[in-house]
């Protein structure tokens, strides 16, 4: 079977972005299928193609995957209008491929929500099977965050959401809340599969070269957030905790924020202005380098803005990277991941918007390193038993290739 796979933000492990689509495509290949990956140029990502663009696109084979990359650069730091235009251009160019390429199944994954447009076209104009994967609920999340307030835009996004869900023959949700959100639009549960993000155990649980930034001493408790520095991530909560730790004189607890994003410069300015020497910023790294960092990490931060829509409606890559590395997780918002942490005792949970509780948890972690090690090992056991990438990928492949028009 030949699958055409649309993911605007595709990356191989050589980039610093999530690699779910890469791993799923590789699993399709291992199961005897063919894959054409269609993507744009994502800041922090690495498609594996290096030749020059011709007529706005380039094409080549990367680890067995046929990759078509449009010359459409995207960054989380871009403004709303620029991002919207990039999304629209990708969708428009993708329609052309959906109408002309040879394939048996069209698969599309968000974000953005516009990723579903080529699938809608393929379903209704070519009669092709369409499988749609939902990583975030749109427009619910941007509405809840206040990022988009224009009622016309929200209405249009709602129409696109409903049309994408109802056009797809099958759907994939990455969290319990996403599955429920899809069903709320009238899609029968039997057409929805739950396949969360997974743990790349072959990357994070093997021998690596441990490292720490020069600003972090070997005896410091190193607490790491590895991900996007954007509005959704609520990283001011980390700086609030850093202020509390500074007030308590705990310079031996270092908070490392590694990544990029629209709000990074503002966070750096605040840390400098408030003299937060216990906060260290670092550029993004690829998966191999991240694995080495995780080998030296004492606590992984799972932090999001306090938006109820996030509680059950997200499946962040970083959580799965942490537990795959045997690193205990500190989580600062309720929801399904907090419940996993508490059930399996693989980390700590604190209330949102409570710097004192956040700081208390880190002081407790610094005081009992053996307990941290035990939490990390329980997290690794959870990674192996419930979130091993290969097991989830096999379930995903069966679901996608079992579809019929």
Describe the fold and architecture.
With 405 residues, the protein is α/β, with parallel strands linked by helices. It has two domains: 2-198 and 388-401, Glycogen Phosphorylase B (Rossmann fold, 3-Layer(aba) Sandwich), CATH 3.40.50; 202-386, Glycogen Phosphorylase B (Rossmann fold), CATH 3.40.50.2000. It is 43% helix and 18% strand. It has 16 helices and 14 strands. The protein has an eight-stranded mixed beta sheet with strand order 3-4-2-1-5-6-7-8, with helices on both faces. The protein is globular.
Across the major sheet, the strand order is: 3-4-2-1-5-6-7-8
Class by SSE composition: alpha/beta
Low-confidence stretches: none
Distance between the termini: 14 Å
Q: Please give the count of helices.
A: 16
- Beta-strand percentage range: 15-25%
Q: Using the coordinates above, name the CATH class of the largest domain.
A: Alpha Beta
SSE order in H/E notation?
Answer: EHEEEHEHEHHEHEHEHEHEHEHHEHEHHH
The fourth-level CATH homologous superfamily of the largest domain is: Glycogen Phosphorylase B
Largest sheet: 8 strands, mixed
CATH topology of the largest domain: Rossmann fold
Number of strands: 14
């Amino acid at each position: 079977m030949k699958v055409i796979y649309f993911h605007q933000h595709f990356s191989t492990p050589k980039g610093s972005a999530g690699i779910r689509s890469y791993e799923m495509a590789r699993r399709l290949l291992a199961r005897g299928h063919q894959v054409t990956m269609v993507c744009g140029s994502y800041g922090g990502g690495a498609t594996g193609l290096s030749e020059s663009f011709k007529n706005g696109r380039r094409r080549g084979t990367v680890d067995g995957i046929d990759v078509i990359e449009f010359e459409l650069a995207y960054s989380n730091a871009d403004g709303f209008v620029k991002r919207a235009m990039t999304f629209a251009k990708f969708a428009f160019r993708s329609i052309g491929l959906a109408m002309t390429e040879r394939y048996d199944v069209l698969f599309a994954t968000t974000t953005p929500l516009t990723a579903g447009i080529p699938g809608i076209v393929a379903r209704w104009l070519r009669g092709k099977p369409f499988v749609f994967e939902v990583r975030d609920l749109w427009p619910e999340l941007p509405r809840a965050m206040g990022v988009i307030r224009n009622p016309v835009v929200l209405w249009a996004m709602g129409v696109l959401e409903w049309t994408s869900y109802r056009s797809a023959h099958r759907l994939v949700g990455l969290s319990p809340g996403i599955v429920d959100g899809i069903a709320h639009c009238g899609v029968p549960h039997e057409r929805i599969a739950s396949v969360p993000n997974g743990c790349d155990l072959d990357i994070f649980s093997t021998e690596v070269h441990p490292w720490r930034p020069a600003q972090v001493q070997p005896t410091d408790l190193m607490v790491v957030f590895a991900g996007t520095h954007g509005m959704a991530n609520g990283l001011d909560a980390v700086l609030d905790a850093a202020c509390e730790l500074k007030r308590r004189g705990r310079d031996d607890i270092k908070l490392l924020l590694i990544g990029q994003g629209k709000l990074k410069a503002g966070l750096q300015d605040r840390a400098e202005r408030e003299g937060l020497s216990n906060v260290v910023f670092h550029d993004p790294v690829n998966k191999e380098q991240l694995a080495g960092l995780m080998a030296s990490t004492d606590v992984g931060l799972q932090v999001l803005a306090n938006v109820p829509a996030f509680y059950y409606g997200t499946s962040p890559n970083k959580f799965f990277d942490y537990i795959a590395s045997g690193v205990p997780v500190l989580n600062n918002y309720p929801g399904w991941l907090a419940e996993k942490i508490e059930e399996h005792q693989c980390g700590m949970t604190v209330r949102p918007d409570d710097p004192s509780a956040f700081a208390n948890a880190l002081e407790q972690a610094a005081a009992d390193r053996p307990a941290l090690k035990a939490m990390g090992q329980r997290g690794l056991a959870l990674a192996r038993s419930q979130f091993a990438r290969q097991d989830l990928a096999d379930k995903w492949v069966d679901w996608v290739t079992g579809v019929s028009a």
